[in-house]
Amino acid sequence: MLCSLCPRNCRAERGAETGAGFCAAGTLPRVARCAPHFWEEPCLSGTRGAGAVFFTGCQLRCVYCQNGAISRGGAGKTVTVGRLRAIYGELIAQGVHNIDLVTPTHFLDAVLASLTPALPVPVVWNSSAYESVASLQRLEGKVQVYLPDMKYADPAAAARYSAAPDYPEVAEAAIREMVRQTGPVRLGSDGLLQSGVIIRHLILPGNLDNTLRVIEWAAGAFRPGEVLFSLMSQYTPCGDLAAFPELQRRISPEEYDAAVSWMELCGLRDGYCQELSSAKEEYTPPFDLTGV
């Protein structure tokens, strides 16, 4: 098939297991870990965890990716649509609160097929927000919760770190479509998110201006209570960052305090702020084919 699932629209030929496009993925899903995950936001992880399915591959090339073993390294195993559906059932039997699809965009067709019939728990689409609106529209009614990153408001940073200078405009349009589909956030009596959008932003060292611009955008784009905003401080240097000296450290207390203060000043109060002490490597799970 000639692929146009993501904004790169590379029109590459994709076979069942391999492809020639930017993501190098085939059409069958490739997954690296399927297990209860306790490091999502509290309204997703709850007490029994989110049912995380980590897919291999990505339509971005973030130089600082903490999941590099699967986003670029290819770790994982190819499964059928039937097996993917069975994995959901096994996770639900373990008591997870939702099915958390992590970086699934390049397997959209297979994932859509795996979500019929509807699951008895919310489906979470956990992505970079580098998404085509047309692809997202195909998910309407299948996905109850969207968990997008809003990585950049600065096109130069998006180009430098993720090879995607158009990221800000693409992600803004994608997130607006997500909110259109789900409506305002809806929490159950147990505090768990039943439907809605959580916008994540990871503070990068040396890029405070980008963070402040992302916060400004989120505060201006959505009404209070319409979305949740999750400010993440867990950045940990990893991978080959020789060409990116500004990323070779964790964020400073001054950068963290400035971001939190700006959230308050902008009136962005619905959501979460990670503690600065959250910069730990344990947030990256082992991609060892657990549950696959």
Low-confidence stretches: none
Strand tally is 10
Q: Assign the CATH class.
A: Alpha Beta
For the record, the count of structural domains works out to 1
Shape assignment? globular
**Main sheet characteristics:** 10 strands, mixed
What would you report as the Rg, rounded to the nearest angstrom? Answer: 18 Å
End-to-end separation in angstroms reads 26 Å
Please identify, by name, the CATH architecture: Alpha-Beta Barrel
* Helix content, binned percent: 25-40%
CATH topology: TIM Barrel
Topology as H/E string?
A: EHEHEHEHEHEHHEEHEHE
The structural class is alpha/beta
- Given the structure, what is the number of helices? 9
Concise summary:
By secondary structure, this protein is α/β, with parallel strands linked by helices. It is built from 9 helices and 10 strands. The chain has helices at residues 42-45, 68-71, 81-93, 108-114, 133-137, 155-162, 167-182, 208-221, 253-265, and strands spanning 30-37, 50-55, 77-78, 99-102, 123-127, 145-148, 186-187, 193-202, 228-232, 271-273.
